[in-house]
């Protein structure tokens, strides 16, 4: 079983910064793609940023130039550096990872979510 545990959420101010972390624990071979999603009240869950095992990144247009996704494979951790925060960034942020259990089997896991609230 693999667990993803997010941390770093909380209250931020418009124009400020927050850094989210998501650490994977358990028994597995490696981690493939890692993703940050978010879900604002009354809205559908939205993909925010992805990073592949090779380090290729992609972002939703609304966060390009403000957010940076990165990973530390030695720590099995993915980060989301959020700068120039806006009130519309307020949401629960979820970590998602595709985990390789061996050379043939891979499964996807979700974290429990961490609340980010940005005040104007």
For this entry, give a set of tags.
mainly beta; 120 residues; 0% helix; elongated; 4-stranded antiparallel β-sheet; 7-stranded mixed β-sheet; single chain; 11 strands
Structure description:
With 120 residues, this protein is an all-beta fold. Helix content is 0%, strand content 59%. It has no helices and eleven strands. The strands form two sheets. Strands 2, 4, 5, 6, 9, 10 and 11 form a seven-stranded mixed β-sheet that branches. It is elongated.
List the helices and strands and how they pair.
Elements: E1 2-7, E2 10-13, E3 18-26, E4 30-39, E5 46-51, E6 57-59, E7 67-72, E8 77-82, E9 91-100, E10 106-110, E11 114-119
Parallel strand pairs: 2-11
Antiparallel strand pairs: 1-3, 3-8, 4-5, 4-9, 5-6, 7-8, 9-10, 9-11
Major sheet details: 7 strands, mixed
Shape label: elongated
Low-confidence stretches: none
Total number of beta strands = 11
Query: Helix- and strand-based class?
Result: mainly beta
Report the mean per-residue pLDDT as an integer: 96
The N- and C-terminal alpha carbons lie at a distance of 40 Å
Please indicate the percent range of residues in DSSP E strands (runs of 2 or more): over 45%
C-alpha Rg, in Å? Answer: 14 Å
Q: Please work out how many helical segments DSSP would assign.
A: 0
Binned, the helix content reads: under 10%
């Amino acid at each position: 079983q693999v667990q993803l545990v997010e941390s770093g959420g909380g209250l931020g101010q418009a124009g400020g910064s927050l850094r989210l972390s998501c650490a994977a624990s358990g028994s597995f071979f490696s981690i493939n793609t890692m993703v940050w999603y978010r879900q604002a009240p009354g809205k559908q869950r939205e993909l925010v940023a992805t990073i592949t095992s090779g380090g290729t990144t992609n972002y939703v247009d609304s966060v390009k130039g403000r957010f940076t996704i990165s990973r530390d494979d030695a720590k099995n951790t993915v980060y989301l550096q959020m700068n120039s925060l806006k009130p519309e960034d307020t949401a629960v942020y979820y970590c998602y990872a595709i985990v390789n259990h061996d050379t043939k089997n891979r499964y996807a896991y979700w974290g429990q979510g961490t609340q980010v609230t940005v005040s104007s």
